[in-house]
Every structure is written in C-alpha cells, then in structure tokens.
Amino acid sequence: MKPVNQKAWFLILPVLMCVAFSAIVPLMTVVNYSVQDIISPERRVYVGTEWFAAVMRDEDLHAALWRQLVFSFSVLMAEIPLGVALALSMPAQGWRASLTLVVIALSLLIPWNVVGTIWQIFGRADIGLLGYTLQALGVEYNYTGNATDAWLTVLIMDVWHWTPLVALLAYAGLRSIPDAYYQAARIDGASKFAVFRFIQLPKMRGVLVIAVLLRFMDSFMIYTEPFVLTGGGPGNATTFLSQYLTQKAVGQFDLGPAAAFSLIYFLIILLLCFVLYNWMQQVGNAVKETEHG
C-alpha cells in the first residue's frame, strides 16, 4: 500500500493561520465581551448570561428580526426565479454569450456603498429617473418618508444588484449539462417545459443550493445599501439586524449586549442555513425518487 503524503497539509497552513487571525480570534473576543459589563477599558465585571437574557427580551430586536426574515425570504422568492429565467434566455455560445455575461456581471462590480448612492439619486423625485417618472405618472412615491416605499426600494435595489449572481450560477449549471440529454429529449418530442422540468432544473439543483445559501446569508447580513439609501428609516422601516447591532455597539457603546446579540445573530444564520440546505436536499431527493419511480 502506497504511503499517504502528509506534506500537503503544510500548503494549507497559511490559510489556517489567516482564518485563525481573521475569524477565530475576533470570535473569542466577542465571546469574552458577551459575558462582561465593560464599564471602562480598565473596569470590567463578569455578568454571565445576563446580556443574552436582556437581548432576548428586547422588543426592538424582535421587530428587526421579523423585518430581516421577511426581507431575506422576499429576496429569495424574487431573485432565484428571475436568475433562472435570465440564465435560460442567455445565448449558449459565441460572442453574444461572452458579451451577455459581461453585461450581466456589471452590477456585481459596483461597491455596496455606491449601489446605495445610485439608488438614493435614482429614487429622488426632483433629479432621479425612477422618482420623477413615478411622480409624472401620478404615483405617490417617497422612499424617505413612506415606510412601504422605503422597504420596496431596498428590496428592488437588492434584486437589481444580486440577481446577476444567481443568473451566472444557473448559467454555469446549464452549460454543464451534456448535449446527449437534449438529443434524447428531441427524439422523445419533449416540450420546452418538460426539458426544463426533467432535465435542466434537476441538473441545476447543486448550483441553486449554492445560490440560495449565498443569497440568504448575504441578504440576512445586509447593512451598507439600506444604511446609505435610507439610514434605516423612515422610523425603523429598513433597520435590519446588522444595522441594529451597529447602533448597539457603536451608537450606544453597549459592547456587552452587542457582543451577546452578535453571537445570537451568528447562530440564527447558521440555523436557518442548515434548515434551508436540508430542506432543499430533501426536495431534491423526493424529485429523484419520483423520476425513478
């Protein structure tokens, strides 16, 4: 039996060191802060789980969590179907395919704070194309004063910014399907919907799982775009969990409660991603059983 070369572990040692420095050490610092009342840099009092209990009783946190859940699942319901539809409509090969990929990926190159600034100007009634057009059509639109308008603007902004990512992932999944499947479908006289239902969608399942998890985690941690666009307002209409955490830690300098909340925030993301992943795996397995049955 050929001996296993263990020297390859040395190649990933720099990666492990970077992860330890950028993730593990800060996480341990947050855990340390979450069980202490930091009166001053020199004075700290151990309080155990007091901050966790206080955070769980915080009604503002409950409201921010509800807004965050509604926003994240709305993002998934909009971006996943749009991304798949966009990928299906893209050219399969040639210079048109290359050009389409570049054009679609343009919004992904824009920094998050610039995206918020673009939509901040875009939605203004005096100089923005969207705001001016809606006002001209008689639609009362004011994302700075109306909570519904603000929430929908943030949602549409996120869909515009990140749907291309889903489209690129779905497009990669489509291009990996062997042509033999399409030839067999043509021989059987399958319709376009049947091809999508029984060939394309099952073969894209892997990349769609990645797309769902990436978009859910990113949308659940959204901060910069709504902060630049609305500042979390009007009122608390677009104050999501990340901005609420920042207000706790930086605005009010409540480092103990903020640390406890950040750990709960982290666990919520892990739990929901775990549930989503397992649900999509079960759906995929059920589809496979139906096909073989």
Structure in words:
By secondary structure, this protein is mostly helical. The chain has a domain at 58-254: Orthogonal Bundle (MetI-like fold). It has 13 helices and 2 strands, in the order αββαααααααααααα. It has helices spanning 13-34, 50-56, 59-89, 95-104, 112-122, 129-136, 147-175, 179-188, 192-203, 205-220, 224-229, 241-251, 255-292, and strands at 36-38, 44-46. The protein has a two-stranded antiparallel ribbon with strand order 1-2. A hairpin with a 5-residue loop joins β1 (36-38) and β2. α7 runs antiparallel to α10. The longest helix has 38 residues, at 255-292. It is globular and about 75 Å long.
Give the helices and strands, then pairings:
Elements: H1 13-34, E1 36-38, E2 44-46, H2 50-56, H3 59-89, H4 95-104, H5 112-122, H6 129-136, H7 147-175, H8 179-188, H9 192-203, H10 205-220, H11 224-229, H12 241-251, H13 255-292
Helix pairs in contact: 1-13, 2-13, 3-7, 3-10, 7-10, 10-13, 12-13
